[in-house]
Amino acid sequence: MADQPWTRLTAWLVRLGIAISHGRPYHPQTQGKDEHSHRTLAAEVLRDRSFSDLIDTQQAFDPWRRVYNTERPHEALSLEVPASRYRASERSYPETLPVIEYAPDVQVRRASLKGVIKLTRVRSASAGPSVANRSACDPLRQRASTKCSTPTKRWAGST
Questions:
Q1: In angstroms, rounded to a whole number, what is the distance separating the alpha carbons of residues 132 and 118?
Q2: To which H or E segment does residue 57 belong?
Q3: How many Cβ atoms are within 10 Å of 131's Cβ, its own excluded?
Q4: CB 23 within 8 A of CB 30
Q5: More confident call, 150 vs 88
Q6: What is the pLDDT of residue 35?
Q7: Alpha-carbon gap, residue 119 to 66, rounded angstroms
Q8: What are the C-alpha distances in Å from 69 to residues 41, 54, 65, 83, 159?
Q9: The pLDDT of residue 4
């Protein structure tokens, strides 16, 4: 996951305990389901059509989504509709995100809203989330291909 982009959505999902999985870059066969649904959406809703605003766009998407998920059989589902396989998550949706707990031996810094972490103490209040600072040679961060000859520092979530 280290080579994958982290977004605010990704960070939010991780804090909710949801594992993130990305397809391999430049390997469209790993995203076949997504590519197929996008191609179908483009052919059936978007082709030869322009929308005046988001409301107009949503009004075109809603009926298509209903038919796609509740009426139209899908080969990958043995000709069942996706709605027949849907199960609501058993996870409860928290009112607030859980607090991030760090091990007592790691440095914790606060990231700015732009994701910048200052290595020196600053006097201004920090608005972004806290992150842990571990050595690149920390056994929790080390990979077999990593050589740890220099005492460099890396931030959690980076490579």
A1: 13
A2: helix 54-70
A3: 21
A4: yes
A5: 88
A6: 79
A7: 51
A8: 12, 22, 6, 5, 39
A9: 52
Question: In the numeric block, which tokens belong to residue 20?
Answer: 């993130």
User: Is pLDDT above 70 for 66?
Assistant: yes
Higher pLDDT, 143 or 52: 52
Q: What is the DSSP letter of 45?
A: I
How is residue 23 written in tokens?
């397809």
Confidence at residue 147, expressed as pLDDT on a 0 to 100 scale: 46
Q: Which two tokens stand for residue 87?
A: 């199960």
Residue 29 reports pLDDT greater than 50:
yes
Tokens of 44: 């059936």
Buried b (16+ CB within 10 A) or exposed e, 38-75: eeeeeeebeeeeeeeeeeeeeeeeeeeeeebeeeeebe
112 near 125, Cβ under 8 Å? Answer: no
Nearest CA to 106 among 79, 134, 144? 134
Query: What local confidence, expressed as pLDDT, does residue 82 receive?
Result: 92
Can you read off the two tokens belonging to residue 71? 């009426």
pLDDT in tens, 82-113: 999 999 988 888 888 888 888 888 878 877 87
Structure tokens at 78: 């043995």
